[in-house]
Amino acid sequence: MDGAARGGHLEVVKFLHDHRREGCSYLAMDYAAAEGHLDVVRFLHSRRNEGCSPWAMNSAAGGGHLNIVKFLHENRSEGCTERAIDRAAGGGYLSIVKFLHQNRAEGCTAEAMDAAACFGHLEVVKFLHFNRREGCSQSAMGAAARCGHLDVVKWLHDHRYEGCSTDAMDGAAWFGHLDVLHFLKENRVEGCTRRAVRDALIGGHVEVARWLAENYPQCRISGVELSA
């Protein structure tokens, strides 16, 4: 039954409930919630006694299933953990982040803004900044830079105090985000390490490696010619 619930096979779940004695575990509702099967969640809630765990709402939030998050909040007592907002933020599900913020007390961690920044969800970053106190870590700008989200990098630079480390420029170089590198050079003081040139070359970004070598001579790699 756990497996059928995970796959959203309500008729199979009903059949097993009516004709078998093995039953299921709390994982049935957890799995159904994670995969967005509200009809299965409703059936298990009304006809079974195994319940679920906080992982059900956490995973529903992370999967973008607002209807299930609301159902669990209104009908179940297991609740969720900080991971619910953290995961919803990483997925860019602003409506879920707002719902949990307004209706639950578990809160979130700095991972929420870090993850939202990493995946380029600027509106989520803004909401967390203006409505929560957990903040972020240097990983927020670093991950945004690595993934090429220049708008997020700029916003964090203008509105947050955590800053970044050399990982920001190193990561941007690895994935060839020259626009991000330009911004970091003009607005930040952390700079980069030799890893930036090396990883830019590994990623096939010769122009980026050349730009780094020209602007950060200390990061040049001995024996590697990058002149145009």
What is the topological layout?
Elements: H1 2-7, H2 10-19, H3 27-35, H4 38-47, H5 54-62, H6 66-75, H7 83-91, H8 94-103, H9 110-118, H10 122-131, H11 138-146, H12 150-159, H13 166-174, H14 178-187, H15 194-202, H16 206-215
Helix pairs in contact: 2-4, 3-4, 3-5, 4-6, 5-6, 5-7, 6-8, 7-8, 7-9, 8-10, 9-10, 9-11, 11-12, 11-13, 12-14, 13-14, 13-15, 15-16
Shape: elongated
Quaternary state of this entry equals single chain
Identify low-pLDDT runs: none
* Rg, Cα atoms, Å: 23 Å
Tally of separate helices: 16
Measured distance between first and last alpha carbons: 64 Å
| Residue fraction in strands | under 5%
Query: Which whole number gives the mean pLDDT?
Result: 96
Q: List SSEs in N-to-C order.
A: HHHHHHHHHHHHHHHH
Residues in helix, %: 55-70%
Largest sheet: none
Structural class: mainly alpha
Q: Please provide the count of β strands.
A: 0
InterPro entries: Ankyrin_rpt (IPR002110), Ankyrin_rpt-contain_sf (IPR036770), SecEffector_AnkRepeat (IPR052050)
